[in-house]
Write a structure and sequence with these properties.
Elements (H helix, E strand, L loop, with lengths): L1 H16 L3 H22 L4 H24 L8 H21 L3 H23 L17 E2 L1 H27 L15 H29 L5 E2 L6
Antiparallel strand pairs: 1-2
Helix pairs in contact: 3-5, 3-6, 4-5, 4-7, 6-7
Length: about 230
């Protein structure tokens, strides 16, 4: 049963890989919308999506912390993308302070400060292992070793769940969330957070596709097409 399912998944992914970029983009959008509809039906409290997102993120960052502290190498990590992630988390944390101070704020703070710690490790403690010449502002390189691949995949799933949380909250409030802070400067923050979640989700979607493809092929090291980078 599992062998047959694996074979079907491999066939489907092989078919998708042969399609032109526009078809792939269309399939990605349709798949995302299908999952959103499914989540809206089965998840009644949208806070569970947020908590699931943070749990997956925490799992991914734990793998990354293990890599940096035990293996003493940051090879395969993009410093520029970590800094961009810290900026994004900083904006989200500020929005969390402005909109509501609660569990969201505490979990966002944990994600923000652990990302700052990763930046500190890459910049200072493990600088000698940083591949600066290959860091072209993407979150991965052409060949990604297992720990980095697991971390980025977890990050992609976390971003999608958080994106789903915000989108479904907007739908449930009939757009009220977007105007919760009024129409002035502060009113832009909810829109900016949701837009950043959507952008990050689509950026990481391509990586997640190749990650699953590599796992189905039994590979421990993720090899990406040169055009992906």
């Amino acid at each position: 049963m599992m062998k047959e399912l694996k074979s079907r998944i491999q066939y489907a992914m092989s078919w998708i890989r042969r399609q032109p970029p526009k078809v792939k983009a269309f399939l990605a959008v349709v798949s995302a919308m299908t999952v959103l509809v499914f989540l809206r039906v089965i998840v009644h409290d949208k806070e569970y999506l947020f908590l699931a997102s943070e749990a997956v993120h925490a799992t991914g960052i734990s793998v990354l912390i293990y890599k940096l502290t035990k293996e003493r190498t940051c090879a395969g990590l993009s410093l520029k993308t970590q800094e961009l992630t810290a900026l994004y988390l900083g904006v989200r944390l500020y929005c969390s302070f402005v909109m509501e101070f609660g569990l969201h704020t505490l979990l966002d703070s944990a994600a923000f400060f652990t990302t700052l710690w990763v930046i500190y490790m890459i910049r200072l403690k493990l600088r000698a292992t940083y591949m600066e010449d290959k860091d072209n502002f993407v979150i991965y390189y052409v060949i990604v070793e297992p720990f980095t691949a697991h971390y980025v995949f977890a990050l992609g799933i976390a971003r999608f769940l958080n994106c789903a949380h915000w989108i479904l909250e907007v739908l449930d409030t009939r757009g009220g969330l977007l105007t919760a802070l009024g129409y002035g400067t502060y009113g832009l923050w909810p829109f900016m957070v949701i837009l950043s979640e959507i952008i990050q989700t689509f950026i990481l979607a391509d990586f997640c596709y190749y990650y699953v493809q590599s796992l189905m092929g039994g590979q421990l090291v993720l090899r990406l097409p040169s055009g992906v980078v």
